[in-house]
Model the fold of this input.
Amino acid sequence: MEKFKLKVFRYDPTKDTEPYYKTYELPVEKGMTVLAALFKAKEEQDPTISFRYNCRAAICGSCAMRINGHATLACKVQITHLLDKYQTDTITVEPIGNVKPLKDLIYDMDWLVDKLKRVKPWFIPKEPPPADGTEYRQDPYDHHRIDFASDCILCASCMSDCNALKANKNFLGPMVHSKAYRFAADTRDGAKKERLEAVLEDFNLEWCVRCMECTTRCPKEVQPYENIIRLRIMAAEEGYKTPGEIHAEIFEQDIYNRGLLNEMLLPMRQEGILGAIKRAPFGIKMMLKGKVNYADFFGGHKIKRLEEVQKIYEVAKEKEKEVKIKLPQIMGVIYEDKRKTRKRANYAESGGNE
Amino acid sequence: MAELKYAFYTGCSAKGVAPELYNSTKLVAEKLGMELIELEAATCCGAGAVQEKDEFLALTINARNLALAEELGLDLLTICNTCTLMLREAKFKLDNDPELKNAVNEVLKEAGLEYKGTSEVTHFLWEVIDGVGLDKLKEMVVRPLKEFNIAPFYGCHIIRPPYLIGYEDPDNPKSIEMIIEAIGGNPVDHTARLACCGFHSFWSAEDKVTLKLTAMDAQSAKEEKADFMVTPCPLCHTQLDAMQEEAEERIGVNIGMPVLHLPQMIGLAIGLKPKELGLDKHVISTKEIIQKVA
Done:
């Protein structure tokens, strides 16, 4: 029978000074998930392997771990798919990233809970329920805006692979910002301002690097990245002047006035004269390397047919008030290129991610 | 063979801080038999900045950008990961929501334009593989880069999120390695291969996040003894090359890892000169690479 290797991250702080990996050889069985493989190794070879699990059906969020380097639910991915996907005979399981391991695949959750508490992830009603004894009512479109965000099962797969968190553990993280959005955007909730202030403290919301790992990892298609952006849009609408907001304004002005971004004048407009002075040594370095387009200091080049763009701006700004943009339905969607004549990298055909 | 003709969307960087990308793309494309018709009326894609302030406006300007390619009856080719994602995101939303498409077209009508959805958004990286083809590329190699260990740096927006990109598996992409092998180089695996350069939080978290990521990425390539990194994205390039010294300074490390744009690397292998590819326009010195290929 065909075999594969399950390489497991092992660590017991009561006796190990360093984590290590232990490999278990197991038969490849059709339909076997990584969680099932862990059970098999534990039951038949080593009862000391520790991991969290509960529902085994991708609902509870307990068994998130890093599998061949990427976070997902161990109960949601199958061994045969992984062996094929990575063209390997070894599946490596580690605790999710950005956390403190407690024992083997079990990690410290207090850190995540403390972060969550900061955005008060519970409903704070705007007003008492209707006097006639019915429930709080909500327009279907308003509900749609928070529908996907409500599906979060707090598995923390997104927190694991977040690049901003990797660099700085004080970033609240996609799971927390996404949760803040779910309540701040709820038309029945009365603590929108409080929630926005919590995520904007030290501009935390804008530490996100837009690496798209969270949305890629999320096993429930919660769209954490998109929720971060929706939260930023809400902050802009509420009139908060953040660096991101200033940045967006510069882009909007440049597109209107010349079509393309004026990168040369960006630092000055972003950070003012003091910022420009701070960036001067960098600017000189860029000049010496011939990376500076001098004409841009005097307005520079304009795109052709700029008048079209200016006309569009005026109409779009008006129209925007009445347009109800639906959130993208991404469940199981892999963008498919219509150019059938070209052989793409087989990804869409294989069904993509699990 | 299909005609390799594209509506060329340059983006802002190639017209601003990365002129060497613009020039090397045109030279390499010509040599590879790709015809690039520059969209001189295209605007900035919004880069995620406009998108997080005015979602509808961002969609509309990108619908216009796409409509410009449709006017020519060509697919739109980008040379920047973020442009690729922003344009594909707009296209995804418009193609999947007829009401939204109508609303956008009502605005575009004012400027005499219409978004139909007939042009695809593709990237130079993908067209070298699917359009030109790796066999053809191999045939054109006159200076195999066999003595170079090359660390691919994909950059986020050419692999994630798969519902908008979907060209290859975001967990295990191979396209850059395939090109490196085709031109005779040795692809180096490194921990930051699929990581983020930090560019998009620069103005909000330069010290807290961005420069730390930049340093980790360059360091990761150095640990695997790469001679240089290669990226298909000018924003990653600006971050990894132009900002590398700042990152070294803040983190207190010494890295000195050269970073090449994808077309520059291909150009060296198909006989273009380092000077015409703009290798002298980098902040981190490419002198050793230039000496080796001479």
User: Anything to note?
Assistant: Residues 202-223 of chain B form the longest helix (22 residues). Strands of chain B lie at 5-9, 35-38, 75-78, 121-123, 149-152, 186-187, 228-231, 259-261. Chain B has twelve helices and eight strands.
